[in-house]
Structure formats: structure tokens, C-alpha cells
Design goal:
Layout lengths: L1 E10 L2 E11 L4 E5 L6 H9 L4 E8 L2 E2 L5 H7 L1 E4 L11 H8 L8 H11 L1 H5 L10 H13 L5 E5 L7 H16 L3 E5 L3 H7 L2 E6 L2 E7 H6 L1 H7 L3
């Protein structure tokens, strides 16, 4: 579904991504792991069109999207739930969700909203509440729900568990698995390597903008180097 081939990207003179190659197969969860500054978020931004690659290609469903604008990439079916939630605090929960569907022209938006309320019942309860007054966990649910309103083929999740209590994290990860079962492919950037590897099919480990290790997620979870560096064992 998605292929990055020898992609390099820069922030000014800072070489953020160094010839990385990543593949995300349809119907899977692929996770990107690594320390802060490893290039995980930069990878998502490059896929989304917010950071343009200086070298290499990005293909989505066989089409080169390397030079497309972010809004055009969303229209193709790649949608990101950003790090830090970034909800619109002065809009209601419902208004935030509707913003997520702004590129859609079909008549099934109401059905998508019902599905999101099934995933996150608290959002239905708080649909008329200002998003800025929600708890951190509720804002994260709203950020994911807003992304799902665009009806993505590929959902990019950037640190969905960051700063959340363990019970909420467990709930978020169960819902991520449900979203996959419903047919959405997911590329997950996550600080909680243990949780990410538990639900992912495949994993890439990044260091300073390079892919240094990759493989079946369950096998990497048992790898001694991975356990020592990322799983505290």
C-alpha cells in the first residue's frame, strides 16, 4: 500500500531522514520505534506532505505522492492523528469531528460519526462540550476520531499514548486494534514500544534518521537487543 524508497528529508541544514525505506502492507499495523529525535515524526510528516523529501520516492497504492500537497494526500486516503492531539480547543467535540470530514463529498458522514461514537462513547456524551475542556485522554480520542472522520485508507498515528494514564492507554490500544479489524491500515509511531510491538504486524526501529532494524513485531519483541534498548529488559 505504502512504500518509501531511499527517502531523505531535511529541516534546513538538519538531515532528518537518511535514505530510509519502509513498506506498509494493506490491512496491517506497522510501527516505527526509536528514541526522541530518531526521525519517527519526520517520517510521518514526509508521508503527509508537510516535509518534502529531497531524495527518494513515496508511493501510495502504486502512485508517486512525493511532491503532492498535504490536502491532496488526505484526499487520496492518508490521514494523520498528530502528536500532542492538536484539537481545536474553542470548537465543540462535534465541530472538531466534522472538521475531519471536510474533504469528503459522499453522503455517509453520519454513519462514520456513529462508528466513531461506538469506538469512543465518551465523545458522544461530550459532543457539545468545548474540546479544550476535555481531559488528555478524551482529547486523544477526539484526535483519533477526527482523523477517522476523513475515512482514511491509511491512518498515521503519532504517539497516541503520550502522557496518558495506563488504563486509558490500554483502551486506546484496544480501539486501534478494532480500527485495523474494520479494514483501516495503520502506521503507528509510539513511545510505548511494548504496547506497540504487541499489536503490530511489522516494526522498524530508527536511529538518527536511519532504519537500523526491522522485522516481524512479535519476533522483535523477543530480540535481546530490542528488549535491552526499548523494553527495559
Amino acid at each position: 500500500m505504502l512504500k518509501l524508497k531511499d527517502v531523505s528529508a531535511f529541516y534546513g541544514y538538519i538531515h532528518a531522514l537518511k535514505n530510509i525505506s519502509i513498506e506498509v502492507k494493506e490491512g496491517t499495523i506497522v510501527t516505527l520505534l526509536g528514541a526522541n529525535g530518531a526521525g519517527k515524526t519526520s517520517t510521518l510528516k514526509t508521508i503527509s506532505g508537510m516535509l518534502k523529501p529531497k531524495k527518494g520516492t513515496i508511493e501510495f497504492q502504486g502512485r508517486d505522492i512525493s511532491k503532492k500537497r498535504p490536502e491532496d494526500i488526505v484526499s487520496l486516503g492518508i490521514v494523520q492523528s498528530p502528536e500532542g492531539r492538536q484539537v481545536f480547543p474553542e470548537l465543540t467535540v462535534l465541530e472538531n469531528l466534522k472538521v475531519g470530514a471536510y474533504t469528503r463529498k459522499d453522503k455517509n458522514i453520519k454513519n462514520t460519526l456513529i462508528k466513531i461514537y461506538d469506538y469512543f462513547p465518551i465523545l458522544k456524551e461530550r459532543k457539545n462540550q468545548m474540546a479544550g475542556t476535555l481531559s488528555g485522554g478524551e482529547q486523544q480520542m477526539l484526535a483519533i476520531g477526527r482523523a477517522l472522520m476523513a475515512k482514511p485508507k491509511l491512518l498515521l498515528l503519532d504517539e497516541p499514548s503520550l502522557g496518558l494514564a495506563p488504563l486509558i492507554v490500554n483502551n486506546i490500544f484496544k480501539i486501534i486494534e478494532e480500527i485495523k479489524k474494520e479494514g483501516t491500515t495503520i502506521l503507528l509511531v509510539e513511545q510505548n514500544a511494548y504496547k506497540a510491538l504487541a499489536i503490530a504486524d511489522y516494526a522498524y526501529i530508527l536511529e538518527t534518521g536511519k532504519v537500523v532494524l526491522q522485522g516481524n513485531a512479535k519476533e522483535l519483541k523477543s530480540d535481546s537487543k530490542v528488549k535491552s534498548a526499548y523494553l527495559g529488559g
